Amino acid sequence: MPRLGKNYPAEVAIFGEPKATLPEISEAIRRHTGKSGHPQAAKRTEAVAAAFAAERAQLATRAEADAARLPISPLTLMHEVAKATPADAVVVDEAISSAQGIRHFFRCADAKSFFGLRGGGIGWGLPAALGVKLALPKRPVVALVGDGSSMYTNQALWTAARESLAVVYVIFNNTSYRILKQRTKALKGFSAEDDHYVAMDLDKPLIDFVGLARSLGVPGVRVEKSSDIGPAVGRGLASGGPYLIDVKIDRSFA
Q1: Of the chain's two ends, which shows fewer C-beta atoms within 10 Å, N or C?
Q2: C-alpha span between 188 and 146 (Å, rounded)
Q3: Alpha carbon of 106 to those of 31, 139, 202: distances in Å?
Q4: What CA–CA distance (Å, rounded) separates 32 from 25?
């Protein structure tokens, strides 16, 4: 049985197969609310929108306040990439443990503007971004991928180069599989007790993602200051081909 509400809190959690469950829920809502909908729906929508806007403003303030931090905070990186990303861009999200702010900073105005992970496996982001670009060739595509996740499918960069697919990859590089550390700590595993996380660090040796990308035919740049993020994204989008931006971020975790 999965842990309901593990990643996102829920007031009411239901475990069910979507194809069977959603029609029944929809019918129950229709019977309960009638043709005109729930009388409080408009007021609740306004309240949720206002709360979301307030949360967005709070996160933006935090991101800007941390702009001078080194290494870059994941939240600042997300904010800077969002500011440099065109409104019509498609965002592919596999930032995993660094994803805070992504749903606030990127407006993603239509149904085809955001693609995210739906499951526990990682390594999906790099190749998925190529599929998105093939399906939506006229739209800019920006993929946000953790360094650990990218190590599963770096060969996708070769495909991007071979097929000249214009995807801008932003690697959130904390030199670790941080999501595994977080889960191990949450479960109070042995590694959490002595702060020694076996096979969860990517630092001996450090991975040269820019060199790796270039060896597969994709140009790129290493970024260590927040002021350089926006210009790097701009160069990647203007290049007309695949481009990788390796960003060194804070590797601490809670």
Answers
A1: N
A2: 24
A3: 35, 15, 29
A4: 10
Task: For domain 69-248, give its CATH number from 3.40.50.2300, 3.40.50.450, 3.40.50.970, 3.50.50.60.
Answer: 3.40.50.970
Q: On the CB side of 161, how many CA atoms lie within 13 Å of its CA?
A: 16
Q: Let me know: does 64 contact 87? Beta carbons within 8 Å.
A: no
Tokens for 63?
A: 């991101």
- Tell me how far CA of residue 127 lies from CA of 49, 89, 93, 143, 170, in angstroms: 34, 17, 12, 10, 14
Residue 133: partners with Cβ closer than 8 Å, 6 or more residues away: 141, 165, 166, 167
Query: Using CA atoms, how far apart are residues 200 and 203, in angstroms rounded to an integer?
Result: 9
pLDDT tens-place values along the chain, 254 residues long: 567 877 678 888 888 898 999 999 999 988 888 878 888 889 999 999 999 999 999 999 999 999 999 999 999 999 999 999 999 999 999 999 999 999 999 999 899 999 998 777 899 999 999 999 999 999 999 999 999 999 999 999 999 999 999 999 999 999 999 998 988 888 888 888 888 899 999 999 999 999 999 999 999 999 999 999 999 999 999 999 999 999 999 999 76
Q: pTM of the prediction?
A: 0.89
